[in-house]
Specification:
Order of helices and strands: HHEHEHEEEEHHHHHH
Structural class: alpha+beta
Mean pLDDT: 91
Radius of gyration: 23 Å
Number of domains: 2
Number of strands: 6
Helix content: 40-55%
Low-confidence stretches: none
Largest sheet: 6 strands, mixed
Shape: elongated
Number of helices: 10
Strand content: 5-15%
Amino acid sequence: MDSISEKVRQWIASGKDPRSAHWQAGLEAMMDLFDPYLDPGRLVPLQPLEDKDIPIYKAILETADLSPNLKAAFLPPSMAGSIKPPESAEEIKRIEDGKPSYKILVVRPGREGRILCAEISPHAEKPGADIFQSGALLGTYDYPSHEECVSGLTQTLRSHLWTKGKWSKDEHQRYTLNWFEKVMRLHSNSVPVDHNSSYLHSPTLIKADKIAAIFLLITDYLDKRLNASEGDLHHAVFSLKNMEDKKEQNTLMTELVESSILECLNLMRDFKIVNFSEFTNKESDQFKVEFSRTTAGMIGKIQNNP
């Protein structure tokens, strides 16, 4: 007997509804299958998206606030349509057969695995989310419309799937970076963030001050862009490093790094994430030092990276 069948057998033996037990096991098996492609704290599409899928993905990407340990997957119709609850489980059937289905699956790791399955399709009869744990249906959350489902999921995620207790420094850094990446990618100031978990909003979480937190976040963000082989910053650096005129190369590299830092700072200002006008004289001086230090540090990384 395989591990999934054994798990289902144990759940049913302990009195769990067989329909919920089999459905949760099937959802977990799918997430296990795609686990190598998932990135904790980020919502990952499990298949390439068609043009019609992108607005729905961006909408849920913008609003779904994930703690850094949660693994989350976005399923477009090409995949979600074939993933259906048992026929007898009418209470968790949310969309008619044949209608384009869009699902998200979110798993919270732990001894008692908890998983959320949400149907967010605009075509759903009952848009909403169902939460399962140890083979039992813990709760269902129904929304009057697709829009309210998408906007309301963050509260459900925070209440029922977020990591409880104290986070590590690394978890605060990953959470803050994941949030900031979405802000930059979507160019939106409505991406939700928990101020008590983001070190940019609460620098003492990582034993830093306001200015240090700003430039740590920018450094983490640019580091990730530099290491993304398909990204625009990576390609720009690659082109510069192939220049024969080293003096011009250094000039252009400095301009590239400074403009990348300023892009982040301008967005923080425009979206009122940071109020630069409230800086004290001491903070303004520290800001200038950190800007220069961050610029030099990024240039050094680029030059030393083959």
